[in-house]
């Protein structure tokens, strides 16, 4: 994204050449990957990357227009697999069940990528309870229920995996993001619970990154600037990338490639673990 005005957001774009190409017998049209948050950012890139590897992708989101864009993107890059849009709201239990049913009708449901999420920036004294509940519903309750409904299909298919989008905020915390921090620590707990119950046939893993150049991040820059009394430029350079040794944001396709690897046979010993790709953010300091 060389024309992106965000400093440091110049990583690889979502093109065929930048998608990790994995040779895996299960990366074929009869394998269905259900991807949430697939209308935008990391979810879109994950849906397209799995389709490019040959899977049939059930792409779900509340944003129907965004899903159409994801279908188009997969076609534009000549993906071998198809992307089927399944519109739905992850705060609705009936929708969650319907989404899994729709995915299972496309073939053998083997992979589930829980990516959908949202952010809200506010100090704890002012944090709206309804916003906290919404974030818990989308980022913890829905991944749990989707896994609950997908597990029987994965066992029936002879095995599968759940990949959960966590964050550096599932490893350490920052101020004014209490709900997000709690959700991301929680999803690592969910990941380990799924690994415990998967009997080795159904694996689970999480993906933790620092800042990725998506609408979720660009949308929070003005709020963080106001909360901290900084310019937007300073938020990006000092707050977001300040502790990272790698001085650019990840791009969505770089994160998508972690899901491609994590679902593949090359990751058969990745079960309950976390792919921490944070540019050194959480393990180092100056
Ligand atoms: P994004 O805003 O680009 O995409 C999030 C998607 O989730 C949107 O398409 C949105 O419509 C969907 N969504 C939200 N609420 C929904 C609901 N009720 N039902 C169905 N879909 C819903 O964000 P992104 O940056 O791609 O983030 C994706 C995930 O990655 C999130 O879980 C986020 O916490 C995580 N993450 C992001 C970053 C980052 O820097 N962008 C870093 C680490 C982790």
Automatic annotation (TrEMBL):
Pfam families: adh_short_C2. One of its GO terms (biological process) is monocarboxylic acid metabolic process. It comes from the Archaea. PROSITE patterns: ADH_SHORT. InterPro entries: NAD(P)-bd_dom_sf, Sc_DH/Rdtase_CS, SDR, SDR_fam. Belongs to the short-chain dehydrogenases/reductases (SDR) family. This is 3-hydroxybutyrate dehydrogenase. The lineage of its organism: Archaea, Methanobacteriati, Methanobacteriota, Stenosarchaea group, Halobacteria.
């Amino acid at each position: 994204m060389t024309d992106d005005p965000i400093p440091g957001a110049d990583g690889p774009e979502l093109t065929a050449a930048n998608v990790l190409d994995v040779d895996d017998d299960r990366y074929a049209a009869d394998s269905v990957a259900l991807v949430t948050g697939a209308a935008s950012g990391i979810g879109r890139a994950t849906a397209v990357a799995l389709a490019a590897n040959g899977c049939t992708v059930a792409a779900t989101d509340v944003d129907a227009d965004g899903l159409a864009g994801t279908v188009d993107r997969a076609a534009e890059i000549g993906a071998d697999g198809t992307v089927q849009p399944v519109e739905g709201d992850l705060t609705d239990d009936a929708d969650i069940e319907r989404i899994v049913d729709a995915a299972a009708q496309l073939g053998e449901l083997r992979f589930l990528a829980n990516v959908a999420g949202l952010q809200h920036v506010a100090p704890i004294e002012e944090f709206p309870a309804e916003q906290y509940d919404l974030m818990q519903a989308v980022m913890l309750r829905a991944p749990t229920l989707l896994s609950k409904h997908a597990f029987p299909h994965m066992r029936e298919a002879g095995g599968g995996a759940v990949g959960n989008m966590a964050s550096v905020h599932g490893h350490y915390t920052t101020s004014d993001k209490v709900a997000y921090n709690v959700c991301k620590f929680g999803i690592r707990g969910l990941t380990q619970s799924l690994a415990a119950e998967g009997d080795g046939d159904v694996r689970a893993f999480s993906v933790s990154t620092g800042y990725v150049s998506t609408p979720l991040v660009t949308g929070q820059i003005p709020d963080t600037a106001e909360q901290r009394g900084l310019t937007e430029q300073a938020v990006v350079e000092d707050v977001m990338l300040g502790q990272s040794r790698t001085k650019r944001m990840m791009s969505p396709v770089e994160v998508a490639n972690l899901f491609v690897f994590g679902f593949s046979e090359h990751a058969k010993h990745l079960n309950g673990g976390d792919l921490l790709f944070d540019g050194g953010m959480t393990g180092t300091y100056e």
